Amino acid sequence: MEKLVITAALVGAVTTRQQTPNVPYTTEEIARAAVDAWKAGASMVHLHVRDPQGVGIQDAHLFKEVIRMIRNECDVIINVTTGGGPGISTKDRISIVPALSADPAAKPEMASLNCGSLNFGLLSRKQREFILDDVQMNPWSAILRFADIMKECGVKPELEIYDAGMINNAMVLKSLDALVDPLHFAFVLGVLGGMQATIDNLVFLKNSIPPDVSWSVCCVGLPIYTIAPVAIGLGGHVRVGLEDCIHISKGVLASSSAQMVEKIVRIAGEMGREVASPAEARKALNL
Predict the structure, then answer these.
(1) Looking at the domain assignment, is residue 1 inside a domain?
(2) What do you get for the CA distance between the two ends of the chain, in Å?
(3) Structural domain of residue 39, as residue ranges?
(4) Given 53, 65, 195, 265, which is the most exposed site by the fewest CB atoms within 10 A?
(5) Count of C-beta atoms within a 10 Å radius of residue 128
(6) What is the pLDDT of residues 76-126, one digit of tens each?
(7) Residue at 86 is within a domain
(8) Is residue 267 part of a domain?
(9) What CATH number should be reported for the domain holding residue 277?
(10) Which of 267, 139, 157 is closest to 214 using CA atoms?
(11) How many CB atoms lie within 10 A of CB 270?
(12) Distance separating alpha carbons of residues 70 and 19, to the nearest angstrom
C-alpha cells in the first residue's frame, strides 16, 4: 500500500474567529499554519486566503505572498482553491490559476476542481434558520473551462466530489481530453447539500471510481476521525484542518490544523501505514 498523503486545509472561506480563535486570517498566519502542518506530517496544504476583515477572496497577490513564505521554509505541496467561497464568481475563482502559474515562485502544483453544482448551507437547528444559504454554481461550461485552464497551466486538478453524480461529471471531462491521467479524486463528505459522512457512503464512492486513480477524503466536523481510519485502511488519503472541522475531539477546540495532522499521523502509525513526505507524495500523485 502506498504511503499516506495527509493534506492540511488551513482556513477555508467559512470558518470564523467567532467559532474558533485559532483559525488563521493573515498571510503570515496562514503561512505559519502551513509550515506547522508540514512539520506535523502533512505533505500537502490546501490554501484559501482572506481579506483584512477575514472574508474569503480570490486574490492572486495574497496567494503569492502566502506561497512564497511557505516555500521559503518547506517543500510541502501547494494545492489552491478554485472553489473560493460564497459569492465569488466562477471567473474570479479560476483566475488565480493562470495568474499564479505565470510566476514560477508561486505556481501551485494542484488546484481543487469542484465537479458539479451544490446547495451549500450551514443550519442552526436551534434557531431553525440557515446561517449560510448558498448555491455554488458549477455548470458544464465552467468545469470544462476550469479543467482546460489547469491542463494548459500544468496544474493537476484535485477532483472534488460532493455527490455521486460528480464522479461521472469528472469522467465526462476526461472523455473530452480535459483531464490527464492519473486522476486524483477528493471525496468531500458532510456538507449540507451533499453526501453525508458515513462509512457506507465512503465505500460506495471509492468503489465508483476507476481502479487506477488516487483518492482522499475530508469531512465536515468530527466524523473525520471515524472516516479517516477507514480511508487509511482502504488505501486512500486524508485531509484535515480548520477549514473542515474546528474540534480535535468532542467539545474540545483544535489548537491548530497541525494538531489534527498529528492525530492522523498517530492513527496511521497505529494501523501500520507510513506517512508520505512531500517528495513521496509527489511521486504517488504523479506531480
Answers:
(1) no
(2) 19
(3) 6-284
(4) 53
(5) 7
(6) 999 999 999 888 999 999 999 999 999 999 999 999 999 999 998 776 777
(7) yes
(8) yes
(9) 3.20.20.70
(10) 157
(11) 10
(12) 26
